[in-house]
Amino acid sequence: MLIFTNENNPAVLKLLISANFAQKPVKIIQNDFSGEVETAVNEWLEWEFTVLAPNLAHVIGAGSKNEKVKSSLTGAFKKLNEALRSRPYLTQDKLNASDIVVWSILYPLSQDDALSKEYLAENSNVVTTKAYQALSYGAMYLAPITPIVENGIRQSPQHQPEVVTNEELEAAKKAWLLEPDQIPKLKNQQKVVLPKPNEKNILITSALPYVNNVPHLGNIIGCVLSADVFARFARICNYNTLFIGGTDEYGTATETKALEENMSCQAICDKYYAIHKDIYEWFNISFDHFGRSSTPQQTELCQDLFLQLNDNGFMFTEPVEQLYCENCQRYLADRFVEGGCPHPECIYPDARGDQCDGCGKLVNAIELKNPRCKICRNTPKLKISSQFFIDLPKLEPLLLHWMKKSAPGWSNNAQVIGKSWLREGLKPRCITRDLKWGVTVPLKDFKDKVFYVWFDAPIGYMSISKAYTQEWEKWWRPAPECSITLYQFMAKDNVPFHAVMFPACLLGTNRGYTTVSHIMATEYLNYEDGKFSKSRGVGVFGNDARETGIPSDVWRFYLLYVRPESQDSSFSWSDLATKNNSELLNNLGNFINRALVFAKNNFNKTVPEMKLNKDDFTLLALCTRELKGYVSSLEKSKLRDGIRHILSISRHGNQYMQANQPWVLLKGSPEEKIRAGTVIGVCCNIACLLATLLHPYMPETSETLKKQLNSTNTALTPENIRIIQLLPAGHKLGEPAALFAKLELSRVEELKKMFAGRNGDTTNACDKPVQPKKATATKVNNQKNTVNANNTVENNENNVCNKNPGEIAKLEEAISKQGTVVRELKASGVGKTEWQPELSRLLELKTKLANLLGTPIVDGKKGKKKK
Ligand SMILES: *[C@@H]1O[C@H](CO)[C@@H](O)[C@H](O)[C@H]1NC(C)=O
Ligand SMILES: *[C@@H]1O[C@H](CO)[C@@H](O)[C@H](O)[C@H]1NC(C)=O
Ligand SMILES: *[C@@H]1O[C@H](CO)[C@@H](O)[C@H](O)[C@H]1NC(C)=O
Ligand SMILES: *[C@@H]1O[C@H](CO)[C@@H](O)[C@H](O)[C@H]1NC(C)=O
Ligand SMILES: *[C@@H]1O[C@H](CO)[C@@H](O)[C@H](O)[C@H]1NC(C)=O
């Protein structure tokens, strides 16, 4: 037996276990099912679930006479027949999951002569497939099909109604019948958000991204976007919410970048600060303040905190050896030194100061053989200078006590990482070094030194708050009656600084600073199962996202849908397209649009009279269940789960509409017409609930929907979760319009190629700081380190300006021509061997164009005005 599978597919286990019992030899063939095929398979699976199965359920057994169902089914079989015109299986020349799923659902139909005749007579391609013929074996094993009938409506096996309890029904009824004045209103946002006594005061930070590069999608989902969803959720719960972010600007990496771009450190920071700010604005990240760490407030707070820790006896000094280049007159960061690998078994002559590319081992810069300065090639000298260390072992008991109280509220990975650091025992850490770009040490003999970026960066949260309001201490040194809950969002590599180092510093000052209650750390997001790499041009970076033309809400939706919550996950173009088309378009968008268009065409854009029966309350009870799940997921910042609850609500809505068929009822008796009105009224109300629930994830879509519903903002009440009638009978609705558009496969394929890698700069630069010998010194690396510090944004900008437009136009024309050649060949029905070479030629042209375009950062330089 052969098993074709992709990686990490648990379904394979079932096969392996069966095969083991059957004592059959098994060969596993890994297949990445990548690209077009995977998307096509997913689309068939989705189609089977949302179109084929529900329509079949209506005709099998009793044979529905509903014309709409009949025409849907006729269309469905035409589609199948068409797909099988030129190949034996649905997506390619090989059998795969889509065939199995589609054919097995056809089994009941294959057993019903009248139906087979009605739907299959004209569709011979369907009947002659091997898979369809295999269905006849089913008769030997399966009982005759008996349809499930309830309320006169046939349910397909997958769409059996979920059971709700009497209590749930009663609660739903009670909530629905509440007076409109019970609808919770959203508080107006304060101009400057300050905490208030006896209210929920939520302080939210997202890890400060390092300022020397452009963030990629992994960075965005890891901190800013996750924090944003949570902040928006907290606001719709009427909590006093302050959301702070900014760029981390000090450190070696900035100096390196400045050297590279021949700019001052300040100019580099200004430039990249603007890039970051712009990208986050495009993603609709709702910071109350997006600041930066190179401000006077930062200097003041950082020096102040240091002096307090020093006074409290948690600092000491110690001599440290470092390499110094007399020619360049600077201490050399690890990445500025090269030399022979110090590991005896390796003879590699060009090891870097932090790692050897020959043997892959970590290297201590001062142990390199024949070290040389990477800038001027001269031999650096070992110099000894005195540095400050923070005495973490002395702070450990304090930290341990604190962590017992705080850690239960952290994400699981944060708890694991935090605890493992304490288990290993803390060591003193160097917090100063001999550089210029940073906060100077405020002591006489140390004026030439600055603080290590890992020490100063987290203080940025406080200094940025201070830049936002003079009353910042209300958040960071709260009065006893004003308790603050601090949530910090980050990727997992940042946990040690937020779980150990920063709290230790704050506790050591003994000044009652706010410490974190919830460290919310994500795992890593990969790009199409590889890593993002700016230098190789692999992956989508913040600025690219806008250029794709895909709306920022769709990006947000997808990134949150695949948020690497408990394990690493991957960004995949084909999955993006599937989710865009199936979940957003077919599920969510379709439900809302059907309800609103129906109300427009049949009820004069007015919410009709509603007389709810048990079915309707059952729907409300099911949706209440999902609403509870939504709130509890978001309170724990399980953002992925939150989305799934939203989609479940619209799935319930779709099933409800399908089951009740208001379009049929409308043509019936007066009672049936009223029934149609009730169904549509309930659906409009569910749409209105969805508008609120969507706000944290897709703020623009939520706004658009509210306009279409002509509804006002309502709040969520986590302490009392229920569905109140938001749109009463007689409420005037707005103008409906499709919320989402289809993302074409061909466009996705184009984008996938565009971001699959360019011939970029491949120098390997990493932004680790100087690593003094004495202590393990690590810096606050605010971003996952897969992005090369040495990105080429500036160069690309130049590219865009210098590019020869004639050449681009020529290539575009050639691509269009070649596209026609391929399409015509394929349409003519010739074999793959004939069209494959032409297709390859097309792809070559497209890659050429993508290479030529590079990362198209077009704004800014061209004087395009930004808001
Ligand atoms: C760096 O910039 C300065 C002034 O902005 C200029 O004089 C100098 O030539 C530049 N150096 C390089 C290598 O581009
Ligand atoms: C439809 O609603 C508008 C106001 O929105 C009203 O003027 C009009 O009379 C209504 N038409 C019918 C047929 O009820
Ligand atoms: C989202 O951002 C865009 C552009 O920055 C802005 O025009 C829009 O109003 C924002 N929408 C919301 C709901 O915040
Ligand atoms: C929106 O709703 C309000 C309150 O129900 C109503 O007064 C107003 O006319 C509606 N607006 C439109 C454009 O129908
Ligand atoms: C899918 O992407 C396209 C952009 O290509 C966008 O216009 C559309 O709104 C997206 N669809 C959904 C369902 O969000």
UniProtKB/TrEMBL annotation:
Assigned keywords, A-Z: Aminoacyl-tRNA synthetase, ATP-binding, Cytoplasm, Ligase, Nucleotide-binding, Protein biosynthesis, RNA-binding
Protein name: Methionine--tRNA ligase, cytoplasmic
Protein family (similarity comment): Belongs to the class-I aminoacyl-tRNA synthetase family.
Reactions mediated catalytically: tRNA(Met) + L-methionine + ATP = L-methionyl-tRNA(Met) + AMP + diphosphate
A GO biological-process term: methionyl-tRNA aminoacylation
Native species: Tenebrio molitor
Protein EC: 6.1.1.10
Ranges of residues in domain WHEP-TRS: 807-863
Subcellular location: Cytoplasm
GO MF terms held by the record: ATP binding; methionine-tRNA ligase activity; RNA binding
A Gene Ontology cellular-component term: aminoacyl-tRNA synthetase multienzyme complex
